[in-house]
Design a protein that fits this description.
Bound molecules: zinc ion
CATH topology of the largest domain: Endonuclease, Chain A
Helix content: 55-70%
Structural class: alpha+beta
Oligomer: single chain
CATH class of the largest domain: Alpha Beta
Shape: elongated
CATH superfamily of the largest domain: VSR Endonuclease
Number of strands: 4
Distance between the termini: 86 Å
Strand content: 5-15%
Number of domains: 3
Radius of gyration: 27 Å
Strand order of the largest sheet: 1-2-3-4
Number of helices: 8
Amino acid sequence: MNKIRKERKVFSDLNVREKYKLYKKQEKEAKVIKIKKRQGRKKGFCLSEETKKKISNALKGNKNPMYRKHHTEEAKEKIRQVRLKTIFSYTNTKIERLVQEELTNRGYAFYTQPLIFGLPDLAFLDQKIAIFIDGCYWHSCPECNKGRVFVKVINRDDKVNEVLKRNNWIVLRFWEHEINNNVKEVADKIENLYLTKLNENKTFTEVD
Ligand SMILES: [Zn+2]
């Protein structure tokens, strides 16, 4: 009780400037909490079709702040510098985790995102099998993504396939919709390839 009385006394004794400072400090703290809350909500949060349309309509044509304007060379350089510093996270996505869980349940040990060319999502290093799990949107799946085509991503995928195959790797690629439809089928394919590779290596060592 005494403490509360003391605090009240202190607050009432403050002059206007000090009160303003305290108020500003509280406001700042509230803002931080608000931002944190918003970020927490954003994770795995999907916008409805209606709000998506609203956002896109609000930035169309001359309503867009960049309408008939271009970035200056200075601004472009600034953007480049910022992008160089960003750290790309190689955490496992939801579809990757589905495949990983299915394989671990079957008792297989594998590497996730090993540091080899192309950064495969899963790999058996001894058997030289690299497994990629491609999202339907960014990798322009012919069944799901009929709108935008990302040529850069497709070219990069082709290059990764080529380089790995040249170095005696086996490359497996699965679509996001394949995993969502049937994880077990995907795991079966991986399992079969792994077992055949394992047997090949065995016979090879026996002959030697
Ligand atoms: Zn697809």
